[in-house]
Amino acid sequence: MPRFHPHVRRDVIAALRYYDSISDSLGDDFWAEFERICGEVDEYPQRFHFDPSGWRRANLLRFPYHLLFYQQPDGVRVMALRHHRRNPRFGLRRQ
After folding, report:
1. What distances in angstroms separate CA 45 from CA 30, 63, 76, 78, one per listed residue?
2. Is 8 exposed, middle or buried (0-12, 13-18, 19+ CB in 10 A)?
3. Which residue has the higher pLDDT, 9 or 54?
4. Domains in the chain, please, with CATH?
5. Parallel, antiparallel, or unpaired for β 65-72 and 56-59?
6. What pTM was estimated for this model as a whole?
7. Which residues in 46-83 are b (16+ Cβ under 10 Å) and which e?
8. Of 8, 32, 80, 81, which is most buried, counting CB atoms within 10 Å of its CB?
């Protein structure tokens, strides 16, 4: 699995709470999709295109979210989980 910026946990929890409030199964589906894309990012990071931020972007398939991440020699670091309609500057100050 990739390494995560500490604030990604908050991003994921907020999305999970939202989808769990609609349906427990929808929250479970979101979590499964999040784990799937994290696995793809970790295994094939160069497959994903660059976002205007300079980080790579991996879209979740079923949900309107994406990961922003970059590749380091020792692996991948995920910097943000962001909704597609969220301010495009969200998460960019994270280091």
Report:
1. 21, 20, 7, 11
2. buried
3. 9
4. 3-83 (3.30.2310.20)
5. antiparallel
6. 0.87
7. eebeebebebbbbebeebebbbbbeeeeeebbbbbbbe
8. 81
